[in-house]
Amino acid sequence: MLSHHASAATPVATECAAVLLPLPLGRAYDYRIPSDMAVAAGDFVSVPLGRRQVTGVVWGKGDGDIDPKKIKDIIGVLELPPLTDELRRLIDWTAAYTLSPPGAVLRMAMSVPSALDPPKPVTGYQLASASSGSPAANESSEARIRVTPARRKVLDFMAGRSACRASDIARRAGVGASVVKGLAEAGLLQAVTLARETYFEKPDWERAGPVLSPAQYEASETLRGLYPRKGDTDFSVTLIDGVTGSGKTEVYFEAIAAALAAGRQAVVLLPEIGLTVQWLKRFESRFGVAPAQWHSDLTGVQRRHTWRAVISGEASIVVGARSALFLPYPALGLIVVDEEHDPSFKQEDGIIYNARDMAVVRGHLGEFPVILSSATPSLETIVNCQSGRYGTLSLPERHAGASLPDILAIDMREEDMPRQSWVSPTLRDAVESCLANHEQALLFLNRRGYAPLTLCRSCGHRLACPQCTAWLVEHRLSGILQCHHCGYTTRPTPECPKCDAKDPFAACGPGVERLEEEVAALFPDARLATMASDTIHGPAAAAELVRRVQDHEIDILIGTQIVAKGHHFPMLTLVGVIDADLGLAGGDLRAAERTYQLMHQVAGRAGREDRHGRALLQTYSPEHPVIQALVAGDQKGFMAAEMEERSRHAMPPFGKLAAIIVSGRDEEAVDAASRALGRCAPRGPNVDVLGPAPAPMALLRGNHRRRLLLKAAKDVQIQALLRRWVRQVRTKGGVRIQVDVDPYSFL
Ligand code: ADP
Ligand code: ZN
Fold it and tell me: Which residues of the chain have pLDDT under 50?
C-alpha cells in the first residue's frame, strides 16, 4: 500500500543517490553518498551544482553510470521531514502529464527557499535569580547597579514570570528597549533560548457544528463514512452537487472533522482566496481556530512559518489557492476543491496544470478521499459522476427553506436606451422597488475599469497596448490607461497620437467604474460600493467591504466576478446582470458552459434567506440556449445538450486536446518554428492537428504568438505523441514552445 506513512522511507542502498533539484531540469542528477551519511528517498539534501550549493530532494537510487571521478558528494542532509512518496509521485506525474521538467514541478513544492533553513533560535530573558535560585545573588547585583524606576518596573514585571523576548518585556513593562538591555548587561536578567513558537493551533473537530437538515446530515454521514478507522482511508472522489445556499460548506466541514479525527491533514482549495472572509469566519466558528492560509497575499515570514508548519504537521488544515495542492503535507487525508468548476484552478503560465484534476491525482496516489463541491459542476465532473467514477451527493434545496431566485431575461432590443447608458428602464424600476423595500441590489458587470476602449473622435484611432493584441482599458479613478494582459500603463495624452486632434478621446462601453457613475446618477440617495480586484487592496479591505454589505451599510453593490462567488448577504434580493452576453462571444470551447456557471453563481447571491430573490439578465439575444436555460432553471437539460454537442465533435472529455503555443520576440523565427511544427505534426486516423495560426492574442507582452491545436481520440496517449513531436523542432532566436494539455484558454 502506498500511503502517507511511506515517509518512513527505505534507505537508498547504493552509495549514490539521484537528487532532483528545484530547477527547470529534465531529470535528477547523481551524487555520491559519503560513507558516514545516511540518506533516504525524500530527504532534503544540499549538493554542489557548478559553483553553487543548492537544496534538492533525494528521488531514489542513482544509476551509477557516471564517471566516478566526476561524481560529487552530497554535502549534507537537512533537518526536515522527508517529502512523502505520494508527493514525489505527484510531482513526477504532473511533470509527465503537462510535459514539464520535474524539477520545475518540484519547485512548486519548495516555493519558500528560506523555509528550508532551521528557524533562528529566539533569545528570551528571565530574572537571573530564577535559575540560580539565590535571591542573595540578585540582591548583590541590584546593589551593584542603580535600580532606576524604569528598571524596577522590569524587575517587578518579570518576578515569577518565565522567559520572554526582550521586545515583549519592554512593551509590556512600559519601558524602552535599552532598559532591558542594561539589566541583561548588569547580570540581573539572564538570556535563555526560547522554545519554538507554534503558529497554528489544533482545530477542535469535536465542537458541535450547526444542526444539519436531514439532507445535509445524510450527505455528511456519507462523507464521515470515508474515515472508518484512525489513519485508514481509500481513494474516492465525491461531488457535492448542491444549489447555491444549500450548505455545501457545512457538509464538507464534517468531512474535515472526520479527517482531523483520523489524524490526517486536510486542504481546501478555493478560488479567490483573498476574498474568503466569510468562509474563514465560518471555519472558526465550527473548529474554534483559524486555518492556515496559503495564497499570494502572504508575507515572506508568513510563508516560511506556514510551509514549515505544513511539513511538520503542526498545520493540520490549510485553505488556499491552487498552489496549496503542492505543499509537503506529511499526512494528507482529504482534499476539498470548492467551486470545482471555476476556471481559476487552471494555472496558465509556468507549469500549465489544472489543480482540480491534480487534486484527484494526489488523492489517488495517496489513497484518500477527494471532495469536489459546486452548484454548477463542470461538464467533465458530471461525466465522471454519470460513469460512476465519482460519487454524487445532492443537496437540491436551500438551507432553512429559502427559495431559489427567479431568473428573468430583459430583452435589450425592446428597451429604450439613451446613449451612453447601460441600465435599462426595466432594471432601473426593479432596483427602485428593491430599495423601496429596504433591500439590497447587486449589479454585476465583469469588466474592470471605466471603459474597455478609448478612441479618437476625429480619426477613429483606438488606443492599443504596444506589447499585446489588446485595447487599453481606461481606469478613470487612477487616471491611467492599462493593458489587462501585461499590466502596461500609460496616461492619456491631450492629443491623438495619430492625427494630433486636440482632446479627442471618447470612452466606449462600460466598465464597473462607469457603471457606478450611471447608478449614482440614477439613485442619488443610495449608498454605493464597487468591488473589483483592482479596487480592493488585500484581504483586510475585502473583509471590510463584505462587512459593510452584510451590515446593510450599502444599498447597491457593483462588482465584477469577485462578487459572484461564495458571498452570503441576507438582505440582497436583486441581482442585475448588465451584459449577460459578454462571455458568449469567441471560439472558446467552454464559453457557453462558463457563462451559464457564472450567471447562475451571481444569480445565486439573491434571496439567500427568508426574502425571495430574483435575477434580471440584460441580453441582446434572449433566444440563446444559455439564456433560455438560465431562465427556465434547466441546468440538467443545458448540460445534457452541451454534452451531446461535445460528444458529437469528440471534444473533451470525450476526446483529447492539447495546444501548442510558439512565442518569441523575433516574428520570423516564431513563424519558422511554427511552420516546422506544422510540417512534422503527427497525423493518423485518430489524430488531427489544426494550425499553425496566429493566436487571438497574436502579440502578448511583446512576444509574437502562433498556435497549433492537437485533437485526438480518447484512447490516444497524447503525451508520448507531443513529446516526440516537439523534440523534432530545433528552435532559434529565443523561440519558446509551450504545451498546454487540456487547454482552457484559447487566446
Ligand atoms: P453553499 O456553499 O451551498 O452556497 P453555504 O454552505 O454557504 O451554502 O450555506 C449558506 C448559508 O446557510 C450560510 O450562511 C450557512 O452558514 C447557512 N447554513 C447552511 N446550513 C446550515 C445549518 N444546517 N444550520 C445553520 N446555518 C446553515
Ligand atoms: Zn499589454
Answer: 1-8, 13, 130-134
| 607 Cβ inside 6 Å of ligand 1 | no
Whether ligand 1 lies within 6 angstroms of the CB of 305 is answered as no
Q: Is the peptide bond before 466 cis (omega within 30 degrees of 0)?
A: no
Q: What's the CA-to-centroid distance between 313 and ligand 1, angstroms?
A: 30
Can you give the pLDDT at residue 471?
95
Q: What are phi and psi of 444, to 5 degrees?
A: -105, 130
Q: Which of 279, 399, 602 to mutate to test the pocket of ligand 1 (most atoms within 8 A of CB)?
A: 399
State the number of CA atoms in the 13 A half-sphere of 360 facing the CB. Answer: 17
Protein residue closest via CA to atom 20 of ligand 1: 247
- pLDDT tens, residue by residue, 589-612: 999 999 999 999 999 999 988 899
Burial code (b: 16+ CB inside 10 Å, e: under 16) for 544-555 equals ebbeebbeeebb
- Nearest-angstrom CA–CA distance, 97 and 592: 27
∠ at Cα 167 (164, 173), nearest 5°? 80
> Residue written as cell 523534440?
727
CB distance 245 to ligand 1 below 6 Å: yes
Sheet holding 572-577, edge to edge: 406-411, 614-619, 572-577, 440-444, 556-559, 528-531
CB 244 less than 6 A from any atom of ligand 1: yes
Return the residue whose CA atom lies nearest to atom 15 of ligand 1.
247
Q: What is the DSSP string of 599-643?
A: HHHHHTTS--SSS--EEEEEES-TTSHHHHHHHHT-HHHHHHHHH
For 292-412, list the strands marked E by DSSP. 292-294, 317-320, 332-338, 369-374, 391-395, 406-411
Q: Where are the alpha helices (DSSP H) in 446-561?
A: 512-522, 538-550
Ligand 2 center–CA 741 separation, angstroms: 25
Ligand 1 atom nearest to CA at 242: 3
Here the cell at position 318 is: 490549510
* C-alpha–C-alpha distance, residues 71 and 279, integer Å: 52
Quote the cell numbers at residue 707. Answer: 498556435
How many helices (DSSP H) and strands (DSSP E) are in the chain? 21, 29
CA–CA separation, 598 and 619 (whole Å): 15
Q: Are strands 556-559 and 614-619 parallel, antiparallel or unpaired?
A: unpaired
Burial of 713 (0-12, 13-18, 19+ CB in 10 A): middle
Q: Which amino acid is at 683?
A: R
Q: Please state, in angstroms and rounded to a whole number, the distance separating the CA atoms of residues 457 and 630.
A: 39
Q: Strand 123-127 relative to strand 189-193: parallel, antiparallel, unpaired?
A: antiparallel
pLDDT, one tens digit per residue, over 319-371 is 999 999 999 999 999 999 999 999 999 999 899 999 999 999 999 999 999 99
102 Cβ closer than 6 Å to some ligand 1 atom = no
Residue 316: half-sphere exposure toward Cβ, Cα within 13 Å: 16
Ligand 1 pocket check for 373: Cβ under 6 Å: no
Whether residue 674 has its Cβ less than 6 Å from ligand 1: no
Q: Name residues whose C-beta falls within 8 Å of residue 183's C-beta, 6 or more positions apart in sequence.
A: 125, 151, 154, 155, 189
| CA-to-CA dists, residue 299 to 3, 294, 357, 522, angstroms | 32, 10, 28, 42
